[in-house]
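tmp note - VANG1 protein
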Amino acid sequence: MSAAMDTESTYSGYSHYSGHSKKAHRQGRDRHKSPRSKDGSRSEKSVTIQTPPAEPLLGNDASRAEEGQDDNWGETTTAITGTSEHSISQEDIARISKDLEDSVGLDCKRYLGLTVAAVLGLLVFLTPIAFILLPQILWRDDLEPCGTVCEGLFISVAFKLLILLIGTWALFFRQPKADLPRVFVFRALLLVLIFLFVFSYWLFYGVRILDSKDTNYQGIVQYAVSLVDALLFIHYLAIVLLELRQLQPMFTVKVVRSTDGESRYYSLGHLSIQRAALVVLENYYRDFAVYNPALLTASKSRAAKHMAGLKVYNVDGNNASGQSRAMIAAAARRRDSSHNELYYEEADHERRVKKRRARLVVAVEEAFTHIKRLQAEEQQKAPGETMDPREAAQAIFPSMARALQKYLRTTRQQQYHSMESILQHLSFCITNNMTPKAFLERYLNPGPTLQYDRDRWFSKQWTLVSEEAVTSGLQDGVVFVLKCLDFSLVVNVKKIPFIKLSEEFIDPKSHKFVLRLQSETSV
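out:
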């Protein structure tokens, strides 16, 4: 792109610009007017999107105005400028629109499944009641009188329907945790079984009772009771297939994060691949430390520096001369000594982390000591002069802000903690009378993903990649991958081996010993 386009794509952290910059901008635009006209066709086919500066992970929309200094709170405010490095073509825009249409299709599929299940459940509960009421409405005068046994069956049907209603609500009417790519096979089979079962009952009822207008009302009520009993047994079958079958551990899965190699092991039962992936993701948000791409930049830059140190040129097709071989040998010796650089670099980093951690601990302890003194003094003041936890947090925060900022920068955690989130956490600790160690736990030890704001997660939408069908069950040696925008989780499935235990009996009478004493032993 031309210099004028680079000037226009530059963004700033502030909304005002000086007159000198505007004048230079106009001069640069006039100077490069002709090159810009040459690239006019290219600008029509692509759109350059400027990405704003990275915001803190824990910031919220209400506190964005207070976070204008971004990660530089505690020091002087600086303006961050830069140029965009990302562009989106018309094909990318078409792909994004297609992804949006696919997401709308997934929502429609989910709501369609819920609608079908709700209609079928309503039909199931209304069918026994309809079996009892239809004879009373259509041929009431021809029915035989209902005796004591028949009236007792009414109570039985009522309580069984109530139990079935509560069980169905507890098992099926739950908030969905995720949108799976395929249908749940067992749940679909249960819905088909219930539909066929109710349809066959209605077919028999229409042929044998409605057409012939059976006058044996007690038999009709008994027929409705048998339907309710069968529905209860189907509900028990649903509990076994959907809940109990997966409880016994049968497989061990190893989950490895592709970027930093962090891994965990989990035990799973008989599950399909898509449901196993859902369990893995639920445990990932709880057990894995939050993904921090800033920790990977140092190793990448070090590797690029060592790779850039080796340059060999072949001029006019000649072989490498003695000078080239000497350069290769020197580069190899430097590469062999790279482990020393890595060792001293890591040692220096650990020293700086320990030093700044000690300063942070001392600063926080002094600040909390001041809070305790304030609380003792505030109890003697009038109620109108007392401070709430938010005001107390704002009062002591400046004394620890610089030490906390340096520590977060050294450990590369500044993008996860904004000033507003730290103030909220500090006021929370003051409200609940927590110690300085409890306050520092969030910053000294990076927590799991669930500890941070849901709207700022790096991993929100996942893609399941598997060679096997995602509806098939887990098997020994199955490998599938869960991909998100920045990294992926590689899952390897191993079957728990069959364990054979044998018993060996030891007779308690065999535990007898003899003490042997020699005459030469000194007493």
